[in-house]
Amino acid sequence: MAVRIAGVTIPDDKRVEISITYVFGVGKSLANKILEKANINKDTRVNALKEEEINRLREIIEKEYIVEGDLRREVMSNIKRLKEINCYRGERHSKKLPLRGQSTKNNSRTARK
Question: Which of these, 34, 52, 69, 98, has the minimum number of CB atoms within 10 Å of its CB?
Answer without folding.
Answer: 52
